[in-house]
Amino acid sequence: MNLDPRSLFELAFYSSFLLAIASVLLAKWRVPLLLKYGKTLQGVPPETGILGSLQRLTVPKKWFGHFYVYSTALALLNVCTLRSFTSLLVLAHSARRLYETRCVSKFGKDSRIHISHYLVGIWFYTVANYAVFVDRTRAYSPLARLVAVIMFVLSSFDQHQNHLHLSKLVKYTLPTYGLFQLISSPHYFDEILIYSSLAIYTSSFKMFLCLMWVIINLSTSALETKGWYAKKFPQSAPPFAIIPYLL
């Protein structure tokens, strides 16, 4: 069977999501240490043998900024090519996160992430921008589009405020601003809302798939963070991980 280039890209797009989700589930089951980074690695004894070697494949945490340099470039290309409002939204999100990683977030000299996290980030911003490029749809209802834009703006603002709060904390202390009193990772909750708004605005199955990945990936990280807070601050840790009154 001969596949044209577009079909090959589509096959790679959908297959990559299956592989990514399967990898997270496998890591959670067999190599949970690969899902930890930063404070959640504190006090965790290193593995030995092959697993230990895998665990040591890390890069500086400040390389998170590479995701947003890359995504901003792709989003800007989409804006110039498509001149669509969706591409502008993705550009706004990517550029803001780039600014935050450069000017707001504080990465310790010894803070590191596993190389798998880094590669997954590059993959995700590739497929997210690809989804914008190939699915040039938008919700039929003007009301749905309006709700999506309002959700995008409010969640983006709240995420920025949460990142500002985190940047002012003494390292490894308990955040207390806003929803941090209820959930351990409100900035992740904001990310879910941001991608929810993009999915609603576009009514694109590909963007809904991106949203599904954001929920799975960030929920896994938020649960790790919640567990760490519960151990370190048993009396004052927030009761939920990422979604108020649900998870």
From TrEMBL:
<feature type="transmembrane region" description="Helical">
    <location>
        <begin position="113"/>
        <end position="133"/>
    </location>
</feature>
<feature type="transmembrane region" description="Helical">
    <location>
        <begin position="194"/>
        <end position="216"/>
    </location>
</feature>
<feature type="domain" description="3-oxo-5-alpha-steroid 4-dehydrogenase C-terminal">
    <location>
        <begin position="119"/>
        <end position="246"/>
    </location>
</feature>
<dbReference type="InterPro" id="IPR039698">
    <property type="entry name" value="Dfg10/SRD5A3"/>
</dbReference>
<comment type="function">
    <text>Plays a key role in early steps of protein N-linked glycosylation by being involved in the conversion of polyprenol into dolichol. Acts as a polyprenal reductase that mediates the reduction of polyprenal into dolichal in a NADP-dependent mechanism. Dolichols are required for the synthesis of dolichol-linked monosaccharides and the oligosaccharide precursor used for N-glycosylation.</text>
</comment>
<dbReference type="GO" id="GO:0006488">
    <property type="term" value="P:dolichol-linked oligosaccharide biosynthetic process"/>
</dbReference>
<dbReference type="GO" id="GO:0160198">
    <property type="term" value="F:polyprenal reductase activity"/>
</dbReference>
<feature type="transmembrane region" description="Helical">
    <location>
        <begin position="12"/>
        <end position="31"/>
    </location>
</feature>
<keyword id="KW-0472">Membrane</keyword>
<keyword id="KW-0560">Oxidoreductase</keyword>
<protein>
    <recommendedName>
        <fullName>Polyprenal reductase</fullName>
        <ecNumber>1.3.1.94</ecNumber>
    </recommendedName>
</protein>
<dbReference type="GO" id="GO:0003865">
    <property type="term" value="F:3-oxo-5-alpha-steroid 4-dehydrogenase activity"/>
</dbReference>
<dbReference type="InterPro" id="IPR001104">
    <property type="entry name" value="3-oxo-5_a-steroid_4-DH_C"/>
</dbReference>
<keyword id="KW-0256">Endoplasmic reticulum</keyword>
<dbReference type="GO" id="GO:0016095">
    <property type="term" value="P:polyprenol catabolic process"/>
</dbReference>
<keyword id="KW-0521">NADP</keyword>
<dbReference type="GO" id="GO:0102389">
    <property type="term" value="F:polyprenol reductase activity"/>
</dbReference>
<comment type="pathway">
    <text>Protein modification; protein glycosylation.</text>
</comment>
<keyword id="KW-1133">Transmembrane helix</keyword>
<dbReference type="GO" id="GO:0005789">
    <property type="term" value="C:endoplasmic reticulum membrane"/>
</dbReference>
<feature type="transmembrane region" description="Helical">
    <location>
        <begin position="67"/>
        <end position="92"/>
    </location>
</feature>
<comment type="similarity">
    <text>Belongs to the steroid 5-alpha reductase family. Polyprenal reductase subfamily.</text>
</comment>
<keyword id="KW-0812">Transmembrane</keyword>
<dbReference type="Pfam" id="PF02544">
    <property type="entry name" value="Steroid_dh"/>
</dbReference>
